[in-house]
Amino acid sequence: MNKELFDYTAQKVDELLAAASSSQKTRDAAQAWKDAIASGADADAATTELLDIIDEHHTTIDEVLAFAAGPAKTVLGEEAAAAMLAHETKRKEEGAKYCDCAACIAAQKLLAKHGRPVL
Q1: Distances from the Cα of 52 to the Cαs of 58, 64, 69, 71, 83, in angstroms?
Q2: Partner of 91 for a Cys bridge, out of 23, 33, 36, 96, CB 3.0 to 4.6 A?
Q3: Domain extent for 11
Q4: Distance of alpha carbon 6 from alpha carbon 49, whole angstroms
Q5: Looking at the domain assignment, is residue 115 inside a domain?
Q6: Domain count of the chain?
Q7: Mind listing the pLDDT tens digit for each residue in 62-94?
């Protein structure tokens, strides 16, 4: 892996770790990548493992809408859930297919940079 791609990957891994919206599975995969790199493991192999994990699941716009209409009320509060629902409804009307949270955006950009665009 060239330095530019490695640096980009490292930046997105940090974004995945920092995003409050990252799932535990995503956080674990991102941390495993960092640990593998720190131990001198092959960067390409570590990156393939990371990409395989984050490529397994993509939060669809319908899943986000279901969360916003239900559990978000308890997790985020009524006002934040309503704002989220309005935002995501508008995005769906505009043709969005996937979540636009910080974790999902970082994952989608990372996958695309490595030739695995989310369709």
Answers
A1: 12, 22, 30, 28, 33
A2: 96
A3: 1-57
A4: 14
A5: no
A6: 1
A7: 999 999 999 999 999 999 999 999 999 999 999
Give which of 115, 105, 5 is closest to 59, Cα–Cα: 105
Mean pLDDT of 3-13: 97
Distance CA 48, CA 15 (A): 18
* 12-49 pLDDT per residue, tens: 999 999 999 999 999 999 999 999 999 999 999 999 99
Closest CA to 10 of 40, 27, 34: 34
In a domain, 44, yes or no: yes
Q: What residue has token string 């393939």?
A: 48
Distances in whole angstroms, Cα of residue 105 to Cα of each of 35, 41, 114: 23, 27, 14
Alpha-carbon 6 to chain mean position: 18
For the record, the structure tokens of 45 come out as: 């192999």
